[in-house]
Hints:
The protein is 58% helix and 9% strand. It has helices spanning 7-10, 19-24, 37-52, 84-91, 93-101, 114-137, 153-174, 178-205, 213-231, 236-246, 267-289, 307-315, 317-323, 362-387, 390-395, 398-425, and strands spanning 29-33, 59-63, 66-67, 110-111, 298-303, 326-332, 343-347, 350-354. A 4-stranded mixed sheet has the order 6-5-8-7, sandwiched between helices. Strands 1-2 form a two-stranded parallel sheet. Strands 3-4 form a two-stranded parallel sheet. By secondary structure, it is of the alpha/beta class. The protein is built from 16 helices and 8 strands.
Amino acid sequence: xxxxxxxxxxxxxxxxxxxxxxxxxxxxxxxxxxxxxxxxxxxxxxxxxxxxxxxxxxxxxxxxxxxxxxxxxxxxxxxxxxxxxxxxxxxxxxxxxxxxxxxxxxxxxxxxxxxxxxxxxxxxxxxxxxxxxxxxxxxxxxxxxxxxxxxxxxxxxxxxxxxxxxxxxxxxxxxxxxxxxxxxxxxxxxxxxxxxxxxxxxxxxxxxxxxxxxxxxxxxxxxxxxxxxxxxxxxxxxxxxxxxxxxxxxxxxxxxxxxxxxxxxxxxxxxxxxxxxxxxxxxxxxxxxxxxxxxxxxxxxxxxxxxxxxxxxxxxxxxxxxxxxxxxxxxxxxxxxxxxxxxxxxxxxxxxxxxxxxxxxxxxxxxxxxxxxxxxxxxxxxxxxxxxxxxxxxxxxxxxxxxxxxxxxxxxxxxxxxxxxxxxxxx
Length: 427
């Protein structure tokens, strides 16, 4: 048998001067486990130099070993090996491939759990279902003529997030940080795109009079097709299937890899939507603590002295109302007309109130606010400790010091609002 040391060139027709040899030798990257560096990698290098005068590759990516769920090396004698074909049969090749990259740092061993393959399969299902939902709605409007000016702040937010994702994933892949790239893709597609953006645009899709429906469909289509390209190296089968159904193109592999575009960089819209998301999370947390059914709608008051903040909520009123289970969203600069016993959640520069008098246990609300007061006092103490530390202030980067100052101001402002609410409840 031919020694595997000769593999890099013997497979290409060597010693003849073949077109394959000319094109494929030397190659770029060899991917290998750390256990065979001396048995295989080094011998390929020696043989390559000896017989061709060239090193067979310029980079060696050394990955860890896949161990069983108890951390043991897979071996015939232990009988703890996993048959990939059985896993593929049960969960699909994409799910297995995705699992082996997730949480994988170069050189580190990883444990193989079926639960992780299941989680990867669930992620594939999530992407599949989101794609089906988008395709079902595609016929509703012609969106070929949509321009960036037609987009709402929610559309610009997700587009801007995708833009950053393309840059980050590319950078991670170039540094061989595949596990980090996959985690970012997972977070973006599952959380930002499916759980937030699709839910934000549903009211626009279901309302035939909504002038922004075409913009929503254009954004859904654009973000999905670009994100599929980024996901393709990790889940090649499902992405190819969806992409070819979504577009007229022959294959996702022939398309252009996404790149950062300055015109898709909408930092202000990102900030605005993140603020609304924080308010929604606050509302959901309160409702969960009080065991309020999602079917139960309530008035939601947004109170802020800052006109900019009020404008953000006015622009995002439709999706904020939907995501915050609001029967009505009222945006104002003071607390007039809000009942004394309204429950509230504090976000930087604004307080969100809900008149839940009949649903709330006032003592519980006091307890919640006291906990929040304690938390904010702790954060303020931490910030003040750092900023009072001469070594930190003189040695840390200026941006880091500024960031701590901004955090401190934010926590102090939130604390004063919490104290105000506690005082009102204690009346």
